[in-house]
Amino acid sequence: MAEYFFEFEKRKDYYKLTNNLYSAYTKGKSFNKSLLRKVKEELNNWIENPNQVQIYTRFLNEIEKNGVNSFGESMALLPLINNYREVWKELENSENKVEALRNFVSRLDACEICTRGLTGKEFFECLTQNVDFLTATQIANFFFPEEFLPLNEEIARTLKISNENYYEVIKPLKGNNLKNLYAALYVLLQRDEVKINFVKKLLGISRERELLREAVYLWNTGNFYEAHEVLEEVWRLFRNEKIKQCYRGLVRGAIALHKLKEGKKEEATEVLKQALLDLKDCGDNFRGLNLNEVRAYLEEVLATGELGNPVELKYNIKSEAA
Asked: Residue 317: what pLDDT?
């Protein structure tokens, strides 16, 4: 599993874009704008703070418009995404966060001199004279991937690795051993549920599928309140607003049916209206669910004010949508 984590991380689009931007900067070639746009679209898959995503998007918009004009711009995505929580600590207290980000990139510019013939410990010490320790590990890994271990705050803190002992710790770890160590650390210490969900998909493991199986059972046995709780957990797996909206509609639908069972018709009616608004533009077979039948049933309940014979919630476990 660790190898999958590492290879998955290594193949992510922002790694490809960093290589592409660096080549464009050093060789004067044009960069892949479609790849840059894809990275912009994927930012919320890797960064949990929507304000930070917005600022990064503006940064990438400027590169798309003006080209990559500095070493810092070519390298910025690695620390910005891999250490996004640490970077945000620097940005969030600034009145002008965009300007603060530019200052961060300017410090990266100063690292270019380190790439001119320096290697090993001298190279790393040069980086740390210009940028923070964690950013230095990200840049060092980019240029010498089999010699330097990229760190985030959690890994560094847990293993008590600091600027003072870093090089001595990693010196014996080179080549594949270093790669395997990073992969294992990432698996053990990663706490980002969205990233974990993506990698589970890569391995054929779907938390969404597991939860939907449970939600289907609860709905079909009339336990609508418990079904709503499980569906709410599914809703939290995603950042895509369209998917979240459709799952929110199912959550509200389950709540409404629960209220109706308790005889709270007025409350159920209001929640049903909200649920149907959420479900209005969702596909008939949304994420493998028989949403068309569910929607028709909720419309009938809204019209009659009666629970009637609840439609069975069905989920196609083999659905590629999941």
From this structure: 56
